[in-house]
Write a structure and sequence with these properties.
There is one protein chain. With about 475 residues, this protein is an alpha/beta fold. The protein is built from 15 helices and 19 strands. About 40% of the residues are buried.
Length: about 475
């Protein structure tokens, strides 16, 4: 998160492997002490990027661990590798429908006073998307006229390839705002370093996003934000079911995501009022520059944010714990761990943590997996088939797959995913694991399904009070 310069210098001055080890031991004590005070939940936010740490080492659980200490024993190791934010569970809200997601964004944009940060794959070009842009214009115009919000800034991060497709695209939707509010508006277009040279020239626009994209989905308004899998497109506002988690008035976590989006934006192409794009001064170009140099520079900029937040949160958590104050009704009972992933830069923390969670899930656990596309990696398939945990997997039926009825080769995609799911289930049957591993299909007439989530539950859930880990 953005810290005052004196604090930032302090963080960097003490950051070293030895000091980090001390903070790690402190954080272990914090988790044990705080979890004894009441039931604790864990929320994983994983749309992003993170340092390529070695695979998290195994932390053995205390024999016979029960209650909240048992929950701590399962998940406290994550605080050794990523920032850990403690927030009151009452500030976390689950939005249930595309329309609620859309209306919440519009309302929050209109009332924002300091910042609006929107990171998505792309922004659509229909009437609903235009209404969203109009809300941004209204907020920016009001900030110029109203002394209560004179410093409102709007920052948009999209994928370059998807956001530039066609004559009418995300860029053309945002250009009027960029031209009118030059000092308050920023549009960044991330371009993967893997799409370059002859490959960039030959792959058609419709398919170039398969090489790699910017896939962060975070929608932030002052100190509140929505984490989702939904893009900024009309179907995601009407009849495309996704998941949407609203964290309300969580300033530290909001600062982290704002800083992270800013960092990714800094290594992205900057949209100009004349529809040209440029890189920030001194930054390596993603497809014209040296690939290794770009990856190293991008990684350094992004990890500056993640590492600073990691150390800062350990310091803050240690300080709060040492005060041992009664936090009353506002006590934070939920830990938020932002997991990040960008493999072209060698950043794989989300992947490593997921593998660890699936590996540790024993017979007393139930794991719920949801995805609009059944396409588990071979490593994840082996973990599911070889684990002792119960698995409940929910995926889209062919009719609610977003590619159902599409023209050309895209129309065959639903059948391909069905084939993959059938092959996997045949393996489940051959191993006689139909009771332990169950597959379900989401079907709703005239709707599509896009939700992606991993949920974890243990048989000790009743003892823990708040049993869920979700990400």
């Amino acid at each position: 998160m953005v810290a005052p310069m004196t604090w930032r210098r302090l963080v960097y001055s003490v950051y070293s492997p030895a000091i980090t080890g001390v903070f790690t031991r402190i954080s272990d004590r914090i988790f044990r002490a705080r979890d004894r005070r009441g039931g604790s939940s864990v929320l994983l936010l994983a749309p992003l990027l993170a340092e390529d740490y070695p695979a998290p080492r195994h932390v053995s659980r205390p024999a016979g661990a029960q209650g909240t200490d048992g929950l701590c024993g399962h998940f406290q190791w994550m605080a050794e590798h990523v920032p850990a934010f403690r927030v009151p569970g009452t500030r976390i809200h689950i939005l249930t429908s595309p329309d609620q997601f859309y209306q919440t964004m519009k309302a929050r944009i209109k009332t924002a006073k300091r910042r609006v940060v929107m990171a998505s794959l792309y922004l659509g070009t229909g009437q609903l998307e235009q209404e969203l842009v109009d809300c941004m214009e209204e907020a920016l115009r009001r900030s110029q006229e109203n002394s209560d919000a004179p410093d409102l800034k709007v920052s948009i991060l999209l994928d370059y390839t998807r956001g530039s497709r066609g004559q009418a695209n995300s860029r053309t939707m945002l250009l009027p705002l960029l031209q009118r509010f030059v000092s308050q508006m920023r549009v960044s277009l991330y371009h993967t370093p893997d799409l370059r040279g002859l490959l960039r020239l030959l792959v058609p626009q419709r398919f170039n996003e398969t090489i790699g994209v910017q896939h962060i989905k975070v929608y932030l308004f002052d100190d509140s934000f929505i984490i989702s899998g939904a893009n900024l497109s009309d179907s995601y506002f009407t009849n495309r079911q996704d998941r949407y988690v609203l964290l309300d008035n969580c300033s530290e976590v909001a600062d982290f995501f704002s800083d992270l989006v800013e960092a990714v934006g800094d290594v992205s192409l900057q949209l100009q009022p004349d529809d040209s794009v440029t890189m920030l001064e001194g930054m390596v170009h993603p497809y014209n520059g040296n690939r290794q140099d770009f990856s190293a520079a991008a990684r350094k900029r992004i990890m500056e944010v993640v590492n600073t937040a990691h150390v800062r949160q350990q310091l803050l958590n240690a300080s709060e714990d040492s005060e041992d104050e009664d936090e009353g009704e506002g006590e934070g009972d939920t830990w938020v761990f932002p997991l990040v992933q960008m493999k072209p830069l060698g950043i794989q923390v989300d992947e490593q943590v997921t593998q660890r969670l699936l590996t540790d899930a024993g017979p007393a656990s139930t794991v719920f997996l949801t995805s609009g596309y059944f396409n588990l990696t071979q490593a994840y398939m082996r973990l599911v088939l070889g684990a002792g945990a119960r698995y409940r997997i929910l995926t889209a039926s062919p009719e609610v797959n977003g590619f159902f009825g599409a023209k050309g080769i895209a129309g065959a995609i639903p059948a391909a995913y069905t084939h993959i799911a059938r092959q996997f289930y045949n393996q489940v049957c051959r191993l006689g694991q139909q009771e332990r591993v169950q597959l379900h299909e989401y079907h709703r007439s005239q709707w599509t399904f896009h939700a992606k989530e991993v949920m974890f539950r243990h048989t000790e859930a009743a003892v823990w009070g708040r049993p869920w880990l979700t990400g």
